[in-house]
Amino acid sequence: KMPSNGNRPLKLQFGLINHEGRYLTAETFGFKVNASAPSLKKKQMWTLEQDSQDAQVVYLRSHLGRYLASDKDGIVSCEADGHNSDCRFLIVAQSDGRWALQSEQYLRFFGGSRDYLSCFAQAVTDAELWAVHLALHPQANLLSVARKRYAHLSMEDGEIAVDLNIPWGVAALLTLVYLDGKYCLKTCDGRFLGNDGKLLTQSGRVTAYTLEFKCGKLAFKDCEGKYLSPMGPTGTLRSGRCSKPGKDELFDLEESHPQVVLIAANGRYVSIRQGVSLAANQEDETDTETFQMEIDRDTKKSTFRSSQGNYWALVAHGGVQTTSTAVSADTMFSVEWLGHKVALKANNGKYICTKKNGQLLAVSDSIGEDELLTLKLINRPMLILRGENGFICRHRNSSTLDASRSVYDIFSLEFSGGAYHIKGADGRFWYVNGAGLVCSDGEAPEAFSLELLERGRLAIRAKSGKYLRGDQGGTLKGDGPGPSSSALWEY
Length: 491
What we know:
Elements: E1 13-17, E2 23-26, E3 33-37, E4 46-50, E5 57-61, E6 67-70, E7 76-80, E8 89-93, E9 99-103, E10 109-113, E11 116-121, E12 131-134, E13 139-144, E14 149-154, E15 159-164, E16 174-179, E17 182-186, E18 192-193, E19 199-200, E20 210-214, E21 217-221, E22 228-231, E23 236-239, E24 251-254, E25 259-263, E26 269-271, E27 279-282, E28 291-295, E29 302-305, E30 311-314, E31 320-324, E32 334-338, E33 341-345, E34 351-354, E35 360-364, E36 374-377, E37 382-383, E38 386-387, E39 390-394, E40 401-405, E41 411-416, E42 419-423, E43 429-432, E44 438-442, E45 449-454, E46 457-461, E47 467-470, E48 476-480, E49 489-490
Antiparallel strand pairs: 1-4, 1-12, 2-3, 4-5, 5-8, 6-7, 8-9, 10-11, 13-14, 13-16, 13-24, 14-15, 16-17, 18-19, 20-21, 22-23, 25-28, 25-36, 26-27, 28-29, 30-31, 32-33, 34-35, 37-41, 38-39, 39-40, 41-42, 43-44, 45-46, 46-49, 47-48
């Protein structure tokens, strides 16, 4: 049996937008709520929690860990630190995808504007409707709840098929594109899923879906009111006949781990094509040369998993084999980032070294030429970056980049000899100018290094050796001395 992908579904976090286009906000002081914010930042993020007994009932938790509540007079607060009866809401989804939130206790509806929010309306009007804007990183793996299989772009069939045991390679990366309150599903080659299962180069009415939440899972409702589900033997993703989502129409979004190939000092790819022992002896990149890098949250050490689901493990005499099905101390490797190269240290305190015959052994005390590897990230051809204050997006009126936006631009990532070029939709490149600002209108590519430092987060280093960071004003700069929190990016 294949081990599962080892991922928990992503927590469903979102912003709620009222009829005036303003976001529901939980203020830090006095646990007050309002709907005044024009964009989605930390204070506008809400997490949906299901009731353990009654699947219809939800709780809305603020960024402060407190719950939205309404009393019998419709007065709304966000102070409760547990699931009490005033915090119980029902989601009444409308045909346009907006939500009405109804107090389960008092059966009144929640709405209003700015500082005048209440939960006292007996019927739903425009003022009681909220659009849902997902706040999680929009690139993920999509798991069918019923089939327990992952979606991927099937080039030969021209479709998204839901038949992978492990979400492998770039084809399993899907990007959720938010447009006017609805979402499109974009494949790694930049096409959009139409409701008939065909992939289209342009987004439009048939590629736009309303997100619905049911029992903590997601359903995608198309423009005809039908839901996406996997069909037939390969699980072709398209709209079915159902106008109510059942198990077949439910999906989880899971974190997409980085997948990498490694090139040794001899210029060959590290591979397990010959068996279980790692050797740098292949000239091309296939599944046997691709490894999933999973970074431990606490130790920041990495495991490397093969497409068969087994981990690299340190064995006797410094050997490294893909024989382990579970994570242990011997499957953990420290990654040292050295400019455009890396070195890997095993649990015996020794560095991995490439021998003359291509075999990889953890036997070296220090780093020389044979201990250096080039690590190439293969499953982010489209790059969306989110920092502690928001997404990276091109500035409206200049060539600089904002690092605190609630909307994102999609950039393309091109590998070049251990470094990367980052390119915008207009075909122009990122570079750091003389004033230390990161600009996006370069004619020629500039080399950046990517360092995969934490689970789900990377740092980007300019050729000066400095890190890219978001400054207080929300501008992207290339002057960070180290990979501090302002220089770490969800990707």
